Amino acid sequence: MRAAEAVALIACAMLGIAPDALAQAWPLRPVRIAAPYSPGAGPAVFTRVLAEKLSQAWSQPVIVDGRPGGSGFAAIDSVKSAPADGHDLLVVSNAHVAINPSLYAKLPYDPDRDLLPVAMIYRTPFYLVVRADGPYATVPALVAAARERPGTVSYGSSYVGSPSHLGSAEFEFATGTTMIHVPFKDQSQMYVSIANGDVGWAFTTLGSALPLVKAGKLRLIAIAAPRRADVLPEVPTLAEAGGPAGMVVDSWLALMAPRGTPEDVVRKINADVNRLLADPDIVEKLRAFGFDAAPGTPAELAAIIRGETKRFAELVRRTGAKAD
What we know:
CATH topology of the largest domain: D-Maltodextrin-Binding Protein, domain 2
Radius of gyration: 20 Å
Number of strands: 11
Strand content: 15-25%
Number of helices: 13
Distance between the termini: 36 Å
Helix content: 40-55%
């Protein structure tokens, strides 16, 4: 038995709670969800929406603890060593648990040893975004500029190792170009930099770029997906727009817990999240952000992480992407 599990059982005994009734008694105090995103980023905004619903369901405050930057290290570190009783949770993307293990020579956490999959929340495709009145009105125009002036066209990413970073590296590889990677600690600053013309382009989710798209500062010129999105059917796929065929850049958001969190608590959190993903208010918010609800079991989430870890390891090898 793991030490954390033993602590949970002792706590149950002290409170007069049978181990199999732990989930019914949980939560016993406010729940914290650490989020490795800047406050205005789509994942952070939606996490706060979900947290409000979970607060109502659990009759306890659910606090979103924003810890952006550092490729998610700060947020993950704050949870991996927390008591494994379900009161400290973490939202992560595929970047944190499937990309970073291949991208970093020394990772300050082990996704499998330190974290436990709890619930998938949503999936989202990425769009290629440029300045609305800038020089890259089309994908061929962007590629042509990068080929004519190697090492001068720049692209942004929300952080080193993010899906946007790996997707951009794959785009470079597929188009035979060399560009400059500009990672940002604050994702909102990346969009401002593109709108100002300081950075050329980026792969982005709709939810994060939407405010500046609506303001006419940014333009989505392609979606890195097999088909067009229902929410923006006028935006072509990369292949339709004259870019590389078969490129997919996407991400997902999931809840994780410290390894050792009791199975009954994990199942309860999973069931409540899955139920809320069908809530009309949540469904409307998901649609507004361009996110697709992705309910499932903890075992299914674990299988997704294993599969994507292998896929991204091959992508890192092929593109030569790396992080210090």
